[in-house]
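debug: dumping io for the single-chain case to check the tokenizer round-trip. Nothing else runs in this session.
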Amino acid sequence: MVGVNTDHASPGDLAALRAAFPGGGPPLGWDAVRAFEAGHGIVLPEPYRTFVAEICDGSYTGPPDFGLEPLAELPDDWGDDRPERVPAEPFPLTEPWVWEDDPRPEEEIEALLGPVYDHGSIVLGTDGCGMYWHLIVTGPHRGHIWNITGEGAAPFGAEFGHTTADPGFAGWVRHWAEGRPWYDA
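debug: decoded output
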């Protein structure tokens, strides 16, 4: 697995993020980012951390199709009857999982799904139809983007297949800003 530098934002990544969101929402500022982190027991991975503090906190223009959610918000179609999200708990997956094809009993699969949706991530937004993009904030895939749908979950980045994009938040945004389809490999 190609590493994503989650501790330092490169000037090139920050320049690409600024160029991709010239009219995005106002940034949160560092005090608000640190308060969010303290309240959730996490440190956001770079360059997303600097992005929400200094560039913008959400954007109607995307990515994904229905816009980039502000840090502390969820997409409108997320649902009100879901369990509380726990970003400090490790994200449980390290490889793609298509639970729709999993032969285990439905009860066993359902018990495993909660943490996939609700542990170790920030929801970046939706492409509709139950397709959510998550930034992983804890666990072995910290800093990577995952697409989690009603049928399964998969990491985003060329090293995982299906796309030519660089991994991580900056690679995900750069791929979108270039007008390329998510799955172009």
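debug: round-trip ok. DSSP finds five helices and four strands in the chain.
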